[in-house]
Amino acid sequence: MFEVFAATPENLGPEGIGAYARRVEAMGYDGLFVPDAVHDGFLLAALALAATSHIRVGISVLVAYPRSPMNVALAAWDLQKMSGGRFELGLGTQVRQNIEDRYSARWLPPAKGMKEYIGALRAIFRAFRSPREPLNFVGEYYRFTRLQPFFNPGPIDAPDVPIMLGAVGPKMLAAVGEVADGMHTHPTNTSTRYLREAILPNVAAGVAKRDRTLAKPVICANELVATGTDAATVAAERERFRGTLAFLFSTPAYWPSLDLFGWKEVGERLLAFTREGRWKEMPAALPDHVLDEFLVSGRYEELPEALATRFGGLVDRITLTVPLDANDDAACAAAVAAIRAI
Q1: CATH homologous superfamily for the domain 3-227+316-340
Q2: How far apart are CA 161 and CA 186, in angstroms?
Q3: Nearest 10 degrees: CA dihedral of 178, 182, 187, 191?
C-alpha cells in the first residue's frame, strides 16, 4: 500500500494555499507537500495546516543552508505543536551558485554539511523536549551551546518532527540512510532502474551506520504523472511535463540518471540550448523513450495498475498531481483511494 501525497504548484502563494489544502484533504490524500521556492515554505505549511484537520503537511525541500538550524527548529517545533503532529520537514542543499549568489549564504559540502545540520536539529529538538538538559552540539560547521530557559519553547504533546532529505547523488543518498527519516526523490531520478540500481543500494549503505533507535527511512517517489479523464488531456499533460523534464535535464547536477541509461548527450544538448537561449526548442529535444522512463501516463482509472507496476516494492509514498480542473476531483479521489489500497 502506498501513501499518496499531493504537491503544491510553486507559484501558488499564501492567498490560495488554504483552499488548495482543503481540496487535497477532501480528495483523500494522505498529505500535502508545499515548496520553498517562490514563496516561504514555513508560511505555506502553517497556512495549509491551519486550514486542514487530518492530512499531513510537509515542506518538500526547504533550502537549508541560508537558515540557521535554530531558526528552522523553532519554526518546525511550533508547526508540529499547532498541528498535533502533522508536520514534516524536508531539507535540501540547492546548488552552490544559488546559495552563494541568490541567498548570499555560506555553502557547505552537501552530504557532510547536511548530516551535521540534521545532527544539530536533533540536538536542539532534544533540548526543547528536555529543558533541564543543556544544549551542547559542537560540530565542524555549527555550534549550539546556549539556550536559556526564556528562549526554550519546551516539550510538546507530539512526536519529534520527521526530517526528510532531497537526495540525488550517492553521498547524499547514503546520508539519507544514515541520519534522515526518509527521502524525496527528484523527478529526474525516479525511474525504476535508477531506484533499483542507485537509490536503494546507496540508502542501504547508509542504513548500515544508522542509529538503531531510528526507524527505517521512508522513500517518497516524486514522480511526474500525466493524467486526466480522457486521452486528450493525458496527451496534453504529457507534453507539459516533457517541457518540465527538458528544463530539469539541462542542469548537469541531474545527469546521473541519464548517465545510467547512456543518454548523457540528451542533457548536453539541452544545456547547449539554454546557453544559446533556444528555450522553445528544448521540449522537442527530449525523445519519447527518455520521457517514458521518468513519466507515468494514463487516465485516472489506469493509474493504480501503472504505479503499482512501476513502484511496487520499491517506495513507500508517491506524489500524484492535483487536477488542474476541479471538475475532475471526483475521478482523482477515486484514483487516490485505489492507489492507497494497492
Answers
A1: Luciferase-like domain (3.20.20.30)
A2: 22
A3: 70
Check if the beta carbon of residue 148 is closer than 8 Å to that of residue 132.
no
**Could you tell me the residue ranges of all domains in the chain?**
3-227+316-340
How far, in Å, CA of 65 to CA of 91, rounded? 9
User: Residue 13's Cα: distance from chain center in Å?
Assistant: 18
Question: Which residue reads 552530504 in cell numbers?
Answer: 111
CA dist., res. 101 & res. 42, Å (int): 22
pTM of the full predicted structure? Answer: 0.92
Q: Is the pLDDT of residue 120 over 90?
A: yes
Q: Where are the alpha helices (DSSP H) in 131-187?
A: 170-179
**Mean pLDDT, to the nearest integer, of 207-236?**
94
> Tell me, what amino acid is at 316?
D
| SS3 (DSSP) at 184 | strand
What grid cell was written down for 325?
Answer: 480542473
Residue pair 173/184 in contact (Cβ under 8 Å)? The answer is no
Residue 326 confidence (pLDDT): 93
Residues comprising the chain, all counted: 342
* CA dist., res. 4 & res. 221, Å (int): 10
* CB-based contacts of 294, cutoff 8 Å, min separation 6: 187, 188, 190, 191, 223, 224, 245, 257
Helical H runs in 208-282? 231-248, 256-261, 264-275
Q: Which three cell numbers stand for residue 131?
A: 529543558
Nearest to 267 by CA among 277, 253, 288: 253
CA nearest neighbour of 285 among 296, 272, 294, 298 = 272
| Angle value at C-alpha 303, between 297 and 308, nearest 5 degrees | 110
Q: Are 217 and 185 in contact (CB under 8 A)?
A: no
Measured between alpha carbons, how far is 33 from 48 in angstroms, rounded to an integer? 10
How far apart CA 54 and CA 60 sit, in angstroms, is 18
